[in-house]
Specification:
This protein has about 550 residues and is α+β, with helices and mostly antiparallel strands. The chain has 4 domains: about 60 residues, no CATH class; about 180 residues, Transferase(Phosphotransferase) domain 1 (Transferase(Phosphotransferase), domain 1); about 70 residues, Phosphorylase Kinase, domain 1, CATH 3.30.200.20; about 180 residues, Transferase(Phosphotransferase) domain 1 (Transferase(Phosphotransferase), domain 1, Orthogonal Bundle), CATH 1.10.510.10. It is built from 19 helices and 22 strands. The strands form 9 sheets. Strands 12-13-14-16-15 form a 5-stranded antiparallel beta sheet, covered by helices on one side. It has a 3-stranded antiparallel beta sheet with strand order 1-3-2, with helices on one face. Strand 10 and strand 11 form a beta hairpin. The radius of gyration is 27 Å and the shape is elongated.
Length: about 550
């Protein structure tokens, strides 16, 4: 923090709340127990997590503090804007905002500070979409996380203990965040009623409005716990941070921050710092077209950065469900080993999914290229084990999210500009609600159970990987010899082409287990990653990082 210029006074500041770089807040100095302590609360916070304090001074009976200007306004405005987005896109954005709020709250609480006034009006947006906590007017220190402080702030955002006992603690802040997230999703207060008294009664009883059906169950359960009238049953900020979706949103946000201008570069493209419209993109090539939509290569008009655009019909109810399901899967599937989702939006009668462009092509092209390599090049260069490791890491993440891909094949494993493998095309992916999901995908990569039972599960993905890994190592599909009926029969009975002599040891054992007709005998992604071959590759990957 810079040393304050004691000669600065109110006349030196041109107050323009809408256009000026900074804006001022004023408090009656008589209402503050100790101005210095108050300033200390704000200064102690990392400017990455909270609205940055620039200057403070006293003029007459008022205490002024100058903070950075957050051009995106507060979350009250965002609540209104979010209601105009499609439900799937809205949920995606709310998860992002939620993650940033909770990481900021955890940071504040690490300094044993209770904000006491968390609400949409004290949460601010920068132009790049970053969320920061501000409005530290009522912030105060607390002895420890079990301690209480007197109430302050806006009563409609106070927890049950504040209304019943006149006291607040760290858990009270979780309650306030829960209300805010509910508002971001639905556009209204969860304890909405005709009078303030009725609102307070609902808060005390925990009688919040039911969630709309489109709110994901994971988010529904989490917010409901945050709004529990019993503060001991609410999750802590640290517990919320450990939730996989929150962790992934934090990881993505941190990666953006490291790029300074919040743009993630791959070969010829950057992640937009804001959501764009269909008109902002220019189509310059078509990669493919099929029953589930067209895949287009597009560039952002203002800067020429390249993306992949998937265009799917969005008129009939079943089309909407298919598109919404794919985006929902993409959100859950986000990791460094899956193709990055940039944004998704409806336009006219279609729905558009914008994704990272992987300039290295796909694994099918690489397999074709490797056919001319010598055995030594294929095995000693370690490219095969590198791709196996990255694909298994991606599948491990998907299965941890209870997602079965159902259409794994070389064409759906993309290669980015750095030569890393990323899993793509979640159009047929389905969450494991039961033990099995219905058969879908490309026949020659499907497992025996897809033909004998018409169903697939996590072990079915492992079979598909076994086929892909065989192709990667040998350049030949293990079943694709003979007529169509002969190929299907071979798959049903596990009669694959014997592996070449040069495929030996642990690698051979891995592939044989993955191609076992008995799905119960196939190893999980986690078990395969625990092999010495994959552990060795993990060590190589970590060294490069």
């Amino acid at each position: 923090m810079k040393q304050r210029d004691t000669t600065l006074n109110f006349e030196d500041i041109d107050v323009e709340r809408d256009e000026n770089t900074y804006y001022d807040n004023e408090l009656n100095s008589e209402n503050l127990n100790d101005n210095n302590d108050f300033v200390e609360h704000v200064e102690d916070e990392d400017e990455e997590e909270t609205v940055r304090l620039v200057w403070t001074f006293i003029e007459g009976k008022y205490f002024y503090f100058i903070t950075e200007f957050c051009s995106g306004g507060d979350l009250r405005t965002t609540i209104k804007e979010l209601q105009m987005l499609p439900e799937v896109e809205r949920v995606m954005r709310v998860w992002e905002i939620f993650a940033q709020i909770i990481i900021s709250l955890d940071h504040i609480q690490s300094f044993t500070i209770v904000h006491r006034n968390i609400q949409p009006e004290t949460l601010y947006l920068l132009s790049d979409g970053t969320v920061k906590i501000g409005g530290f007017y009522f912030a105060t220190e607390i002895a420890d996380e079990q301690d209480y402080v007197d109430i302050a702030g806006t009563s409609e955002y106070m927890a049950a203990e504040a209304h019943l006992q006149g006291q607040m603690n760290f858990s009270s802040e979780i309650f306030s965040v829960g209300i805010t997230i509910f508002e971001l999703l639905t556009g209204h207060h969860p304890f909405q009623a005709e009078s303030s008294k009725a609102i307070f009664q609902k808060i005390q009883r925990g009688q919040h409005t039911e969630f709309p059906e489109w709110v994901p169950s994971e988010l529904n359960r989490l917010i409901s716990k945050m709004l529990d009238p019993d503060f001991q049953k609410r999750p802590t900020a640290k517990e919320i941070i450990e939730i996989e979706t929150i962790k992934m949103c934090i990881l993505i946000h941190e990666q953006k921050q490291r790029e300074k201008i919040n743009e993630i570069e791959t070969d010829g493209f950057k992640m937009p710092t804001k959501l764009h419209k269909y008109e902002d993109y220019e189509v310059f090539d078509e990669l493919s077209g099929g029953a589930f939509g067209r895949i287009l290569l597009v560039k952002l008009k203002k800067n020429g950065f390249v993306y992949v655009m998937k265009r799917v019909p969005y008129l009939k109810q079943k089309d909407k469900k298919m598109a919404d399901d794919e985006v929902a899967m993409l959100i859950k599937a986000q990791s460094r080993y899956t193709v990055r989702l940039v944004q998704a939006f409806p336009h006219d009668l279609d729905f558009f999914i914008i994704q990272e462009f992987c300039s290295g092509g796909n694994l099918k092209g690489l397999i074709m290229e490797m056919k001319i390599w010598s055995i030594e090049e294929r095995l000693l260069v370690r490219k095969c084990s590198k791709y196996m490791y990255q694909i298994l890491m991606g599948i491990k993440h998907l299965h941890k999210q209870s997602i079965v891909h159902r259409d794994l094949k070389p064409e759906n494993i993309l290669i980015d500009k750095d030569g890393n493998a990323k899993i793509a095309d979640f159009g047929l992916a389905q969450q494991m609600i039961k033990s099995y999901v219905k058969d879908a995908g490309t026949l020659i990569y499907e497992p025996p159970e897809a033909f004998t039972m018409g169903k697939m599960n996590e072990q079915s993905d492992i079979w598909s990987l076994g086929v892909i890994f065989t192709e990667l190592v040998t350049g030949v599909h293990p079943f694709a010899v003979g007529s169509f009926d002969e190929i299907i029969a071979k798959i049903k009975y596990g009669r694959y082409i014997p592996l070449p002599e040069y495929v030996q040891g642990e690698l051979k054992k891995m592939i044989e287990l993955m191609l076992d007709v008995d799905q119960d005998k196939r190893p999980s992604a986690d078990q395969l990653l625990n092999s010495q071959l994959m552990k060795l590759q993990a060590g190589i990957q970590n060294t490069k990082e």
